[in-house]
Design brief:
89 strands, mainly beta, transmembrane, Jelly Rolls
Amino acid sequence: MILIYSTTEESSVGKMLKRFCIKTKNMEWKVIIITILLIISLIPLTPVSHSNTKPLPLSTLNSNDPGITFYDEQLFMALNAYPVSTNLVIYVKVIAQTSDSGYGPAYLLNAITNNDWWYQVGVAYNWPYTNGSFDPGFHMIYMVWNSSGDPVIGPVLLNFNGIVNSGDEMMLEIEISNGNIILSAYDNSTGAKAIAIVNANGASSIVTDLNFLHGFITGLMTEWYHLKAYFGGELGVIYRLQYLTTSFTLGINEIYLTSPPQGIATDEIAYSVSNNYTFYNLSYIGAFTASNGYYFITGNLYPIFLNYKVIGGSFNIPINVSYFSDGLKEIARLPSLIFVNANSNISLPSIVLNGLSRIVSLNSTPILANRSGNITVYYQLQYFININIPVNASINGIYTTLSSGWYNASIKVVISPFTYYPNDSRIMVFSYPTNEFTLITPTNLTITYILQYYVHVNSLIPLFGSINGTNASISSGWYNKNTVIQIYNITFYQSNETRAVITKILPANKILVNMSYTITANELIQYYIIVKSQIPIYALINGTNSTLTSNWYNIGTNINIENITYYGQNNEYRYVISNILPSRNITVENPITISIITVKQYPLIVYSKIPVYALVNGTNETLQKYSWFNAGSRIQIENITYYINSTARFLMEKVLPYSNFTLLQPINITIITLPQYFLNVSSNYPVYVLFNGKNTTLSNGWYNNDTEIELYTIWYINQTERQNLVNISLNGKPTSNNVIIVNGPVSLKLHYVLQYYINLISNIPIKALINSTLVTFSPGWYNAVTPISFINMTYYISNNTRYIILSILPFNFTVNRSLTVKVTTLKEYLVTVNEPILITIANRTLNTSEIWVPAGQTLLIPKYVNISNNERIFYNTSSYLINITQPTSINVKPIIEYLVTIDGNSEWLPRGSVITLTQSVPIYEQGKWEGSYNVSNGVAITVNQPITETFVKNINGSFVGSVIILIAIIIIAILFLTIRRSRPKF
């Protein structure tokens, strides 16, 4: 407990002097006592010696005594909106954990009062001292900071009045009561507690609107000192608030305890929440924090809301999950909020059974905890169906086999009336109790059915017989087991000209259905054939020479009719069988009538050096020198080209007396021909020529003798693409002549180079590598496949003005089309400074004395550059913000300034300034200046470094001693005179 006292009573020395002044008679013996007391009052008090070993402070970001070689890691949650008034209570599960150095953390509750004082209380484990040792075990720790951000009390470590174990939940409380602030820690498991009472300094409430004003917060914090930076290996710690905060800030600080401390890493983010179902987290430098506005977690622990849903219905059997929290295995029942070690597994049951009902996990298990948040696990509800025989059924529209087993709840089952099995067998199902239902409970099905087999009937004619003794037509279909089928042998007449005779029934004409059967009826089909002819007709019937007459013939009988020709007088004409209807070779497959037709023919004689082809009554034929054709035949001589070889041929020019005529008598034909030669052209691109006065594309082909062809050496495909003829080979020999005369077979080989026009848009010359040769690029025609690669070279107009290339599009390419190269440039001016300084341009800062700046860009020169917290450079120049429109020279004069703090008042002064340290004091006091120089009052000092001087006053001992001695002399004199007057006169 910290107690502050004040008093207005007189000192004992004053009281004694007063009594002495009142009682003056017969008091000579008191003179010596008074003198002794006066001498004692002039003896100074001896200073108390304290050890410099003390606990390290809390929240060193604002501490003036940070230690020497430690690093401090702070994980905090600032309550930006919270229903506080005169007390703040939180709960935290404390964990005994240490770093390699043996130091442990402090789990802290922080509160800012309405007078901007800061109070911290918590539970520390193995808290370190400034000399590197530590206080083992759990202790309550607290500290107080004033409104200037300076520590005024602590840190103080207090022992608990009982045992505190790792994993116990501690209640931390800061309460304002009767002008004091009560700081307490209470173990909810063991009842151990510790309390400290400090002065409230006029505070009446705890507030959140002053957060971060001096680095103070109202909220929660885990703080841990280390000998190395970026430790970030805390075990999970869970804080719990009394109420939900709707706004908070998560933060992580890493502080190097120099003097003053340096914040070497910091990160923070604010959140607003409307419920406690969403966790927000912050991960930085290996450390982790998370909160949902009600819980605050620091360290290697993920908060996860774990819920489950059952698809298909309800399931009331509890579902337990197992997980590890701070290395200990925990069991929770869904739904639940759990706190899980990072990257550990959450194990869930894959199947939960309840008799003939169960749920099956739709998620993979275990679940890897790799983030905080909400996880919903889905289960499918299933029921067991017990059925006496597998049947075909539709389950939710999908055709399958329904057998005993587990099925998803709420499925719609439609049982098929038939279930098919191998070997052409099936069962016919009778409804039980209905052929369709929705699965909402475990179900037991008993199916009533009859066995059937499929009987295949293979016959070209209808079959008649009896089924179980009843006359019926016999056809393919399903028959019940043990059905008796008998087939009758009856000849079937389809018409007067078609009939069928059954020759055999397989496997028998009577069967008992106890399996699937194929009944095959072997029939012999017969057709009646009618023969019409004016002359005797002979034929080979099934290979035997016979006279062909009208009769019944078996299907498939082969009839080959002989063809006999009749010649006239002197062979000037003849009669031949022109047609046998329907055909000379007949396979009996239906009733037919055979008719024999004859025709008269005349001879045709042809005179020609080449073979002659003609359309005879529309049929293409080769005309022999002597040929017979039907009288009245229409003959058209075909204009057929005759090939001597693959490169020379003859065309038919004329046919005498005519090429198209009707043969009504014997006739002679004469053929006249024209020679042509083949031109073979080989080229990598289309060949454009002047041929018969027209522009055309040259191709392989036949050309008349003495044809003239002119080749174009350059052909423009379009305005940006052309062909350039670079090589001509005629019949294997190179030539420069582009005019070709066809007077024999021609082999022409040409090679073109495809060229594209490449355009250039640029306001400066640019360099390029074309086929590995460095040139200044210009627009023009370039061969296809030419590699062009541009070089990004800065173009200098002068020493202080240049163009830089921002982009060349395209920058490098292989010529395969026409394109435009566009060069984008930026004009820059050279800016020089008389000495290197920090220059900011386009959000980029650099230290230089020379820089190229884009035209029109604004350049910023800092007015001050801080070397440290108490030393800076003032750059004296005419302008600090310059718009660069031309080459520019800048002159700056750097002036070093130091921060001078005199008795709490700070001011920046140039190096070399002279100040006089003086302070007025009463005559009974004296003072001196302590700090950087430690000089007497009234002394002038020169500013050559940062200066801090504080005027320290004390009693002017010489003056006060002289006054006391003078008073003593006066008193003695008065006493002496009094005694002398009181003596009796003699």
